[in-house]
Amino acid sequence: MSEPRRTESRNPRARGIESFTTRQILELMNDEDAGVPAAVRSALPATLKAVDAIVGAIARGGHVIYVGAGTSGRLGVLDASEAPPTFGVEPDVFHGIIAGGDTALRSSIEGAEDDESAGRRDVTQVVRRDDVIVGISAGGGAPYVLGALAAGKQVASATVGITCNSDSPLARAADIAIVVDVGPEVLAGSSRLKAGTATKLVLNMLSTAAMIRSGRTRGDLMIDLRPTNAKLRERAVRMVQDETGIGEDEARARLEAADWNVRKALER
Fold it and tell me: Which of the following is catalytic: 8, 27, 82, 256?
């Protein structure tokens, strides 16, 4: 029998966890989570390459397509869905695809990740020449994701793989492999834990750094955000005040005249 993948291995520290006190379970989980940022930092060189590829693609009119199954797919869809309100980009600039479709966002459709042809089909329907495809699979062996990358390689400008296993089909298949080795989980194979946290951190970096490098912020301010509720409108007012030194009433008036477009309000 072959050795289990890192994400499937058992964690010696968690043996007998059913007899732990609640405090001991929480401390063990917290201790294990503490190693995730260091693992993400080790993957920064590959993450940098991926960000540069995304920035170049977007500058040419391309898009970012996240593809995953289960937790990985949900995290990709989450990151993609937050890009428009945060950075003011069109909804298709970051596009999330999950095995099993939107139903899989709420309900587990575990068998969907085994359908390589579905991955090929789903990506073929949306990929264009200047796009970057980001395949997400903690174990690195989800056929759905591998099929998506294989289909995308024929068209996309670059493919990226986010995985927690260096010796995996996804790491070998992607043009840029972001490997975050977080080690075995507290519950063997439950990659929604450390692997999920690491994946979320990497996705945060890809989208946020790419948008900053693409001029979608001013300093640390999200000046292209869409102020669609009271909290965000107040944030917009504070941004205009901070950048211009004017009072609250004048800042609000500027924003109202600019239809609550922060960038335009700052240019007035």
Answer: 82
